[in-house]
Predict the 3D structure of the following.
Amino acid sequence: MYISVLSGKGGTGKTLISTSFALSLENSTYIDLDVEAPNGAFFIKPDIKDEIVFNVPVPEIDESICTFCKKCSDACTYSAISIIPTVKKALVFPDLCHSCGVCSHVCPVEGAITEVDKEIGKIRIGEREHVRFIEGRIKIGEPSAVPLISGIVEEYVDFFRVNIVDSPPGSSCPVVESIKKCDYAILVTEPTPFGLSDLKLVVEMTKDMGKPAGVVINKYRSDFYELYEYLRKCDIPVVMKIPYSMEIQKMYSRGVPLIDILPNIKDDFKALYERIKNG
């Protein structure tokens, strides 16, 4: 089971929900794919067992045998290679490269283009009691988090466990990459006009991707009619409500998980998992 927790913007409560969801279940894995600002470890408090450097291949051009025919630069959709025949110069821009390999494929000179590793981030793996912990951390200055997210999902997710994924905020490419293989999406929102506006973005995204979804209302104080009306039209259920509470905010700011603040909510998370598992 692969359950993604996402929202239309940061600060809505993804980590509040995803960490306690994982801690409530047996044989679970918490995966922090918010690789630009991971903070799940602050609440899970795992014992880190391994830290792995994550590399992507980028081209390196040997100008001593390159014929400067420009086939590689013409084939590169992302303008990551520039060939200047007049001065016999080949320039590679690693930050623009998407590691697709088309440049070496079209190059007519064997050995002129080779691929070298470029570090774009790290993956930390640990555990806490019954919870496995995986976290991605993008290297500062890297323009795209997608390769790191994709690499974690492909290489380190155990689909025989219950995976609770803390997705990046918003509805951009990293979010799409994080939910490609998810079985269910939990959309976290707040009962305000701004919360509804951001929620609409992820609802449209999950519907376009054919992902079943349910909504968790965080900081709930009273019913917000426009939110319920929108969810009714979209046929999306409200699966949980987290009350607005200064106590939750104070304890959460100290790294205390929600299930330690509201112990009874652990049963609610277990019931939610059973509901998702049984369709």
The mean pLDDT is 94. Residues 3 and 184 are 5 Å apart (CA to CA).
